[in-house]
From TrEMBL:
MF-aspect GO terms: 2-oxoglutarate-dependent dioxygenase activity; iron ion binding; L-ascorbic acid binding
InterPro entries xref list: Oxoglu/Fe-dep_dioxygenase_dom, PKHD_C, PKHD_hydroxylase, Pro_4_hyd_alph, Pro_4_hyd_alph_FE2OG_OXY
Keyword Isomerase included in the entry's annotation: no
Protein name: Fe2+-dependent dioxygenase
Any Pfam family: 2OG-FeII_Oxy_3
Amino acid sequence: MITKLPQVLSEKQVASIIQLIEHGSFTSGKDTAGWHAKAVKNNLQWQGESELTEQIQTGIQGALTQHPQFTSAAYAKSMMPFIISESTLGGGYGNHIDDALMVNETVLRTDISCTLFLTPPQDYEGGELVMNLSGMEMAFKLNAGDAIIYPSTTLHRVNPVTSGSRKVALTWIESHIPQASQREILSDLDCARKDIMEYHGKTDAFDRITKTHANLLRQWAMT
């Protein structure tokens, strides 16, 4: 399930993050790429002092985890620290699949990948996030402050930037619900019961859907 999350960060919050980034520097993304990714990874990754890094992490992670659509779509158990990536002229990232396991303080299984856009789409050409879904391609280029989450099992790429500069924040999430199909069912049920509550109030249908949602969550959740 691919989910767009509008306005994870406000314009003011995006501007604040960009200001903090300016106090650090960018190095080659190849330095952190695995052996199979070095050939197609052509972007830059931000580095800064620990205090700046903590401010950025706290600001972005707090905004993401408080977004109502993220909560009902991800069922996040743990999350990797955000990476700030920049692609300039010719920069991008060819077709790849994200690592299944990543290490922070502990080993994290990557169930969900997240891209949070920090640059307005009109400020750069190219740079689309392109996902390959059963042979069909879908391209995404969202507004600054918007995010997109998608299964980490998805083959994807970032098209080369042909002008301007593209900055994004990236993270990976381990979910209490590892299967993407099960997360989609739970998300659909959650949306349905919210619609019922909004238009009809707390009805018998609302209670039945809420019961089903809770019992499926109880059955599928890995703690």
